[in-house]
Amino acid sequence: MKPTTRPTAWPRKLAHAGLIGVALIFLIVFLLLPLATVFYEALQQGFKAYFHGMAQPEALDSMRLTLLVAAIAVPLNLVFGVAAAWAMARFDFPGKSILGAFIDLPFSVSPVISGLLYVLLFGAHGWFGPWLDKHNIDIIFAVPGLVLATVFVTLPFVARELIPLMQAQGTEEEEAARVLGANGWQMFFRVTLPNIRWALLYGVLLCNARAMGEFGAVSVVSGHILGLTTTMPLEVEVLYNEYDYVGAFAVASLLAMLALLTLTLKTVLEWRYGDQIASHNAARH
Known about the structure:
By secondary structure, this protein is an all-alpha fold. The protein has 14 helices and no strands. The chain is globular and about 65 Å long.
């Protein structure tokens, strides 16, 4: 006697194959094809032209500035994210829900709007502009403005990785450490930090990737001063508008490689520490 489920097996398999095919086509068209185009255009005139495009003084300045801004913004968000997660997960206080809303604010506000807000605050005609000008302090159209804009748009990444995990973990282990005589720093470095290390590393990776690739907010506050306030995404726009396509795609390819490096590190973490990350993801939900 033939199994009764056989007549429905092929439609089900066809449905699965169709869904997989749609997903693959979507990935190829919207992700892999644009990524391949970046490297194809960058290398279209050979490696000599490619490295010449990346070795231009303005391009090198944009790379140094991008690394500098990320090197300042990421540690600041690391400290803020840990402190905010600690406060949200360990204490009840008035305004706790408001703090959570403010942490998520950069997700809902356009980066361009956030850049304009800093211009309104620290620009020449902003609230603090006259005082800053009087004391010869430059924020807008200078590196401090780029750092402020980058810190704003990357602010939620570390905190939002840590808060659900620390809330799910509870306080039992930390309370036990305090009962055994550990002070605050000992409790943090020996109990809290080991328990949140993978979520913290995840948040730092995402924060760094966004800091290096941010365009909208830094575009508003940068002033597009070549060699001084143009980060790599802005340099790509400048080179493209000047019809230097090889240089534009060469710098864009470097940004793409940084993104791929971030993805590779994330994949290695998932492969090496899959159990801990799975428990972390379960805690988030």
